[in-house]
Design brief:
single chain; 223 residues; alpha/beta; 4-stranded parallel β-sheet; two-stranded antiparallel sheet; globular
């Protein structure tokens, strides 16, 4: 089996996926890119599966789907929409914070690090888990999407009463992977400055998420 450094519950749940030919080829390509480092690949190799390591399968309560890691130096750390402490908060995340404050009153923090969400059961999943420096979308179409589609399907099949937050047309296209009879899917435009004003603001997804979790006997997320 391909030896993937990933949290045990995910390693067990995705064992079949790791053995598929596409994943072996993907792993070899990504490993070669990291070794060559021309151009650099983000996030650092140790953080590619950070979302999984911080949020084991059995602890997932919410899934927030992004498309691609940030492609600037020091930004990406394996969590969708999140940046490490000390890194300037990106525009989409600023808008997420604005909507949280408008929706539930939580003041906007100074840091864009969303590890605190991940540790509460929010899986911050990008559809593509690596990217070349300064080249957004450069690792799309290599096999990551097939892998992360399998992750979404696995969560849908194995768990119950998960909230999936799908923002933007790309994320919304993944709705077909989710059993909407046993999960809540909330859709809105992307929080980027180009589209946030077309329906992301005032969607109330954060209060709706907590209300749903509460109704199903799960702890709310401290956004």
């Amino acid at each position: 089996m391909t030896d993937v450094k990933i949290e045990y519950s995910w390693k067990e749940a995705l064992a079949d996926e790791f053995d598929k030919e596409y994943f072996k080829e993907l792993s070899e390509k990504i490993r070669a890119d990291f070794l060559l480092n021309k151009p650099p690949v983000y996030p650092p190799a140790s953080l590619v599966f950070n979302a999984f390591n911080l949020t084991p399968l059995g602890e997932v309560r919410v899934v927030i789907l992004g498309q691609d890691p940030y492609h600037g130096e020091g930004q990406a750390h394996g969590l969708s929409f999140s940046v490490a402490d000390g890194v300037r908060i990106p525009p989409s995340l600023k808008n997420i914070y604005k909507e949280i404050e408008a929706d539930i009153g939580t003041k906007q923090p100074d840091s864009g690090n969303l590890e605190r969400w991940a540790k509460q059961g929010v899986l911050l999943l990008n559809a593509t888990l690596t990217v070349e420096k300064s080249k957004p979308g450069s690792h799309q179409g290599r096999g990551w999407e097939q892998f992360t589609d399998a992750v979404i399907k696995k969560i849908s099949d194995k768990r119950e009463h998960i909230v999936f937050l799908l923002w933007g047309s790309f994320a919304r296209s993944k709705k077909t992977l989710i059993d909407t009879n046993k999960h809540l899917v909330l859709e809105a435009p992307h929080p980027s400055p180009f589209s946030a004003h077309t329906g992301f603001f005032d969607a109330g997804h954060f209060s709706k998420t907590n209300q749903y979790l509460r109704q199903h006997g799960k702890p709310e997320i401290n956004w």
